[in-house]
Write a structure and sequence with these properties.
The chain is an alpha/beta fold and 426 residues long. The chain contains 18 helices and 18 strands. Bound molecules: S-adenosylmethionine.
Length: 426
Amino acid sequence: MLRFHIITIFPEMFSSPLSHSILKKAQEKGMISVGLSDLRGYTTDRHRTTDDYPYGGGQGMVMKPEPLVAAIEDARQISRKPRVILLTPRGRVFDQAEASRLAQEEELVLICGRYEGVDERVSSFVDDELSIGDYTLSGGELAALVIIDCVTRLIPGVLGNVKSPQEDSFSTGLLEYPQYTRPEEFRGMKVPEILLSGDHMKINKWRREMSLKLTAERRPDLINKQQSSEEEIKLRQVHPTRLYAALLHYPVYDKNGRVVTTAVTNMDIHDIARSARTYGLRGFYVVTSVKALQKLAQKIITHWETGYGSEYNHTRKEALARVRLKDTLDDVIIDVERECGEKPRLVMTSARSGKGRTPFGEARNMLEKEPSVPFLLLFGTGWGLTDAVLADSNYILEPIEGGTDYNHLSVRSAAAIILDRLLGKQ
Ligand SMILES: C[S@@+](CC[C@H](N)C(=O)[O-])C[C@H]1O[C@@H](n2cnc3c(N)ncnc32)[C@H](O)[C@@H]1O
């Protein structure tokens, strides 16, 4: 039995999550127990004060040390071997490996902060400080519930099927493979043949491959930690990067060298989306701030995503699912940063040769060597990207040379050739 002991000023927040599903059953089966200490019970003044103004001034209130430490000391008295954890955004980030470690404990005391956090001196009375992720919650109660849920499902016997927690995303160090249930065909999309084959060796192999592929596409940071066979290393190389592409309709030059906005075209969106899907790009942005053009682009995407087109041809749908519309290049950069946790390096493409161009081979090596760094390939429309974009770019790729004096590839052709040079099998 693993005992959780929560110290909080809002014990009522726990009642609903603890009285449903897995957590309810785990308590009924005697596999966990959850005790709640109302922090106000450890105050000594008439108003049951748990917070006060911060020394040095500043926003908000800080939780006082006396009631918190009294509650911790009480918990240590009652239990033989409690592990006392302060929930704080400054803590080590809680993950599946940490959950497995905590599932071995006998008693976990989880301290929920509120307001601007807790008095620094409380840290001396705890064994550990944990955060549930890089964002700020209003209080530690939801963080405590996340930890209780995640740890409880790892206790043997809590889940009906003993194997399933080991197959979940993160337990293997990878994201989980895609799951399907009935019906066999839904809106034109079929369950992969192999899952209907009954051949469990093949199914397991397919699942492992899909896990690796998905993890490489979405979380290359996880896959780099993996120890794996040669076959798996090959698989990783299929989608090794955090590469994005953006097709800019502004700011670009027209043939007279003026900075203009160009029109969105159906074919560019389709073809670059299909190339992006083929070469495993994480996203393809279409950039225009003209609302009418955005509407048109959205119409094209929706037709293939949810309209008639999605049933007619779902491989096209799969490609268009990666298209994202943005007003400006800055919006694209913000979006990639939000997804990857850091700003992308900008890789501009140009039909013009010039100083400091990065050869394709060098760029390819860079992508391979730094799979966790986001890169954003910039493609221009009209007569090419402006000097302002060039000034902001980290790299400018060498132009594609056809060996003749004609140098007018369409942007969708150039995009396909460049993606092949950067990511295609050699
Ligand atoms: C509004 S937060 C305090 C944030 C604090 N001023 C800071 O910037 O670190 C109030 C309480 O919510 C809890 N909390 C907020 N975000 C959390 C996270 N990511 N993981 C765990 N606990 C969190 C902590 O108990 C924290 O003391």
